[in-house]
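Figure 6 in text form: structure in, sequence out.
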């Protein structure tokens, strides 16, 4: 007996249409609103006599975003040369002397290095699986820095430092020292693992766990 084909109704088509269009529409809407907010926020800082919109009968959409990109590129170029690193060093030392502010700055700096780091500069070195919060339950975690030097004499040998993020906000979580043998390395890029955490497991890469 041949398998019967599923019946498609107007209700099925309607909800399928929502599933297809809603994520795209919401993403585009948020992108446009973010673009407008950045554009208007940056444009306000342009002196009136230097603002092209002062002399035009219409606005220039994207002027603020373009200016922000140019400024960030120039700051990046400055930061990679000797003079720029010297200036940044002075600024960081001043900030580190301010109570409370220094802690906030250090945390934010590490966060952005983690999420935006490229070429091995990210604090997250590898995506792994670890049993947490109990045996038999596994979660995604990330290998971070080597075990803190002052702790090496207090902990068993062959320990690693991992960060277990929370879902859907990976910027909060738990730092743990665990035996290396209890960590399973994933054949997955760090940014793919972060996307998986943020999406609560909905967005998954096609690669599988390395078999050992």
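Output sequence:
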């Amino acid at each position: 007996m041949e398998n019967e084909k599923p019946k498609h109704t107007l209700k099925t088509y309607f909800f399928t249409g929502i599933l297809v269009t809603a994520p795209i529409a919401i993403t585009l809407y948020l992108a446009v609103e973010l673009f407008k907010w950045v554009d208007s926020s940056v444009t306000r800082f342009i002196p009136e006599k230097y603002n092209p919109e002062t002399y035009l009968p219409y606005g220039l959409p994207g002027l603020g975003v373009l200016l922000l990109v140019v400024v960030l590129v120039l700051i990046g170029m400055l930061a990679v040369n000797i003079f720029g690193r010297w200036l940044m060093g002075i600024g960081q030392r001043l900030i580190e002397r301010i109570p409370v502010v220094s802690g906030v700055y250090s945390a934010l700096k590490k966060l952005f290095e983690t999420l935006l780091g490229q070429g091995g500069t990210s604090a997250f070195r590898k995506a792994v699986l670890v049993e947490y919060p109990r045996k038999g339950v596994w979660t995604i975690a990330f290998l971070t820095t080597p075990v803190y030097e002052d702790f090496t004499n207090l902990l068993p040998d062959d320990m690693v430092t991992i960060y277990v993020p929370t879902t859907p906000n990976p910027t909060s979580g738990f730092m743990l020292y665990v035996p290396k043998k209890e960590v399973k390395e994933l054949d997955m890029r760090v940014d793919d693992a972060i996307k998986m955490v943020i999406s609560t497991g909905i967005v998954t890469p096609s690669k599988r766990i390395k078999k050992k």
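Caption detail: The chain has a mean pLDDT of 80.
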